[in-house]
Design a protein that fits this description.
Helices cover 25% and strands 40% of the residues. It is of the alpha+beta class. The protein has one domain: Roll (Nuclear Transport Factor 2, Chain: A). It is globular.
Length: 154
Amino acid sequence: MKAARKTRTHRARRKPNRRAAASPAETTIRRIGQAWAQEWNAGNLDKVIAVYATDAVYLPPHHAAVHGRDAIGEYLQGPLRHGVSDLAFDVTYIKQQNAVAWDVGTYRMSVPQSDGTRKEDHGKYLTVWKRVAGKWLIAADAWSSDLPPEGQNP
């Protein structure tokens, strides 16, 4: 007779969810970021630039830094007119220290091509926020694509 074999079943232990509740700043910044993408997709440039501080800096890829809310608005007219759309953000995390917060995540958007087709671009971003007169405003905004520049192979 064969000896009976005892088997143990291993249950995966669940770690308790220790994620702290979102701070008021995190909740507000997430909401503003979602609204930013919605306003962009609707073509409402005035509402898009309204969340930038007057002294903000915008750091787009393959371009010099753009300083000031008005200059950022002028710069953003180009991609908006070109038809960049379907913008969506996925926040990785938001951290805050006093009146400054930083928002790190990924984005995706649809970019028209010269042949009439569209191409999805995706990449990462870092946005620095500052609290001014009780409102969270963008102080610095940087992003870069994960795709190689046009004409270059990965």
